[in-house]
Every structure is written in C-alpha cells, then in structure tokens.
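Re: beginner question about structure tokens

> Can someone show what the tokenized structure looks like for a real chain? I only ever see the sequence side.

Sure, here's an example I had lying around. Input first:
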Amino acid sequence: MTPIAPGATIGILGGGQLGRMTAMAARSLGYAVHILDPDPDCPAKSVADRCVTAAFDDCDAAADFARHCDVVTIEIEQIGLDALAAAARHAPVRPSAAVLAVVQNRIVQKQWLKNRHHPLGEYAEVASADDVERAAHEFGPLVVKAARGGYDGRSQVRVTKADEAESAWNALGRRHAVAERALGLVGELSIMVARRPSGDIAVYPPAMNHHERQALAWSVMPAPMPDLILSQATKIACDIASSLTVEGLLAVELFVTEDDRLLVNELAPRPHNSFHETEAACATSQFEQLVRAICDLPLGDPAVIRPAAIVNLFGDLWSSGPPPFERVLREPGVRLHLYGKRSARPGRKMGHLSATGSTAGEALSRAQAAFARLCDGDL
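And the corresponding structure tokens:
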C-alpha cells in the first residue's frame, strides 16, 4: 500500500476540538486540511484550509468533500453511514463505515463485543419503561444509556430503584437503550491503539480517568495501577482493535471493578479526551499518530517520556466572564489548551490544562493545583 505523503490533503468529518487538534498536527506534518461540519463557526475552521458546512448525513456533500481529499477521517462517531459510503467512492475513509456501524449504536457494539467474548458487565436491551423496570428488578441499580448519541453523560440516566423506570425512559426521549447493572468500581482505564492499513499497531500506556457529573474531569498517564491490570487491559484493547481492523485510532474504555475485573465500557474510533495528555507526555501525540495511521506512514513512538495529566475546563468557569488564565500560565510545567469555541455554557468542554511531573501523581497534583488557582477568587 502506498503511503499518503505530506503535501496531500486530509479531510476530517467533524470540526470540534478533536478535529481542530488533529488539523494542527496534520499541518505541522505538511498536510493540507479540509473540514466538514454542520456548524459554520466550528472550532477547527480557523486552522483548516477549507471548511464545508453540511450535515453529517448529507451524502452529496460528503461525496463532493472527498473528491478534494486524498484521505478522509473522523473526529466524531455520529456520521451517517451512507454519507461515509459516498465519501469512500472518492477517497479512502479511515476508519471505515463498517467500523462505525459497530461503534455508533451501543446495542450493536455490545452484541459485537459479546459475540467475540470480550468482557462486559451485565446489561439488557430496553425498548420501553416496562423493560427498564424489569432490568431494575433483575440487576438492581442501573445506568441506562440511549443506544445512539450522547457523550459526557448526555443521554444517560441513573435508576436506583424500579419505580424510577418511567421517568428514566421519558428522560431518554423514549428511545431504544441499554440498561447496565451499576458496578462497584475502583477506577476506569482507557487504552489507545493506533493501527495503519498495512496492519502495524502502536499502543499507548493506559490512562486512568476520573469522572464528575458523568463527564471526564481529569486523566493521568501512565495509569497508577498494578502492572497485571494494565497488561490485561492493553491485551483486551489490542484484541478489539485487531478484530475490528480499525484504520486510525481506537480508544477502549474499561471499568476496573472492586473485585479486580476488567469490563469494556465503550469504544471510540477517534482521538479521545483521556489522551490529550499525550501532547505533553509522549514522543508522538494521539493527533500526530492519527495522521500517521490514516496516511499509512510509520507509526510514532507511543512511550511516555514524562508522566502527564490533564484537567478539563468546562463552560461553568466562564459564568462571570473569561477566567483569569494568567494565574495558571505562571505555573511551571503547566500548559493551557483552549478549543476556540465561541460560546460557553455549563458542562461544555472549552479547553483543558495539562501538566507534567516526575511521577503520575506529581503531574496530576500540578494540574489540579493549577485548576484550583483558576477557580480561586483570590490571587
């Protein structure tokens, strides 16, 4: 297979922060970048050579977009499969529509994982409030997730007892969903696997993640967990990536239970929030790695050179105006990353802080201390 060399044009379906950071990495390597996104002022627009405003299920727009690209990738899973097929008639699409057909529906994804004997927590498909109630009687407390869409805790509802089934079903918009048994957890890991079309893979050390309000609050790598857990998690992720024959990136989220089991939570065939720290920690960031992988170039070294952590910045911080970023920019080893979003609202990811340290714990402490200074009313 012939590599797609620098100087070519990379198309990205999706112009959010992941598309923006991928575009920046691609431009550093000498590629032109085109973006397609429904938002005419999407964050990636300012760093792209061309930005097409179109819906993610617009087949004609996707086909015309791909005609101007040498390879097309994604930064969001919810792209219409017919639109991906239309794009693929004019340029390689990596990852393929076949991968997204598995990933973008949680019911299909779980069945695919179950059929291949990857470890999952107990769950049930639900298509009514009665189904949710039955699942609550069978499993106890639940997390009910819409089959399609949703991230950062959206389209997810917790059910603590059966009589909450009706309100949970209504809150999800009465859509097909999966009802998962609520688990006792000691942590969550994510593993990032890069795979190029020729079959070569590179795997980043696991990251450990912490969620608040069902959204990622912070992440640190390498994950401070036992080596046996980390090696098992890495094997699971590599097996899944190989089974899916992903071309590009695959992030595998795994729960670590109180009885030391590893259970797959979700898959994401794109850059992932929990690996933003690769820009500070690793020789090759996840964004450069995506460019290398989809262009079938040699994959970069994923090793951690220095432990790093990130803390996410949500729109809540902008409630009284722009935050005082000069406070954190004084801190040694701390960097500020803003996504170029024009409007801030509570719960919206606006950027993140990253920090390095001699250990994962030190990196996380630095990032959290910088975040606290940002939130503190006193200088």
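Each token stands for a local structural state, so reading them left to right follows the chain. Residues 227-244 form the longest helix (18 residues).
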